[in-house]
């Protein structure tokens, strides 16, 4: 999908509205732990002025992400509002929206996705999912190099 810059220039400062869907495979995200359940719904408004195109809109889709603590897959509703200004040259005729959408999508993915804020994750020693059961590993097992710091904190 492209924005026709000539149409925006001839609109005389008026806002043009665009609505379309983009399939996740077309975004070339290279994100291994992201699966699209639905296509990305894009709604945006664009306005030309002073050599720039101001774009505002939203991206909506459903994803499958991997929890950064327990490594389980979970459903994630992606809903992101955005606003951007794109500098355009006089000879430029269009703006490729797929690149813009990909950049917005990737930069707004959670850095460390969590299935729940209460997720306990995996035991670092035995790998048991602490959300399902407690393991028998000692809770106070500490790196011997940090024992002196622990003594200071316990005072």
Q: Name the overall outline.
A: elongated
The parts where pLDDT drops under 50 for at least 5 residues are none
Order of SSEs: EHEEEEEEHH
Terminal-residue CA separation? 63 Å
- Radius of gyration from the CA trace? 23 Å
What is the SS-derived class?
A: alpha+beta
Largest sheet: 5 strands, antiparallel
Enumerate how many helices there are, as a single number.
3
Percent helix, as a range, is 10-25%
Number of structural units classed as domains: 2
Describe the secondary structure blueprint for this structure:
Elements: E1 2-4, H1 5-10, E2 16-22, E3 35-36, E4 40-49, E5 52-66, E6 73-87, E7 94-96, H2 97-107, H3 147-154
Antiparallel strand pairs: 1-7, 2-4, 3-5, 4-5, 5-6
Summarize this entry quickly.
The chain is of the alpha+beta class.
Write up what this structure looks like.
- This protein has 155 residues and is α+β, with helices and mostly antiparallel strands.
- The chain has two domains: 2-119, no CATH class; 120-155, no CATH class.
- It has three helices and seven strands.
- Strands 2, 3, 4, 5 and 6 form a five-stranded antiparallel sheet that branches. It has a two-stranded antiparallel sheet with strand order 1-7.
- The termini are far apart.
- The relative contact order is 0.17.
- The mean pLDDT is 87.
């Amino acid at each position: 999908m492209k924005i026709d810059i000539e149409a925006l220039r001839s609109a005389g400062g008026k806002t043009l509205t665009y609505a379309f869907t983009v399939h996740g495979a077309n975004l070339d995200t290279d994100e291994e732990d992201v699966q699209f359940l639905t296509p990305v719904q894009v709604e945006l408004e664009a306005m030309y002025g002073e050599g720039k195109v101001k774009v505002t809109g939203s991206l909506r889709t459903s994803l499958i992400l991997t929890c950064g603590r327990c490594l389980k897959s979970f459903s994630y509703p992606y809903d992101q509002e955005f606003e951007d200004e794109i500098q355009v040259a006089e000879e430029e005729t269009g703006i490729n929206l797929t690149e813009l959408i990909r950049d917005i999508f990737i930069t707004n993915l959670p850095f460390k996705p969590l299935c729940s804020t209460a997720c306990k994750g995996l035991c670092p020693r035995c790998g048991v999912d602490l959300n399902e059961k407690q393991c028998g590993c000692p809770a106070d097992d500490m790196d011997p190099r940090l024992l002196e710091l622990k003594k200071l904190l316990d005072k």
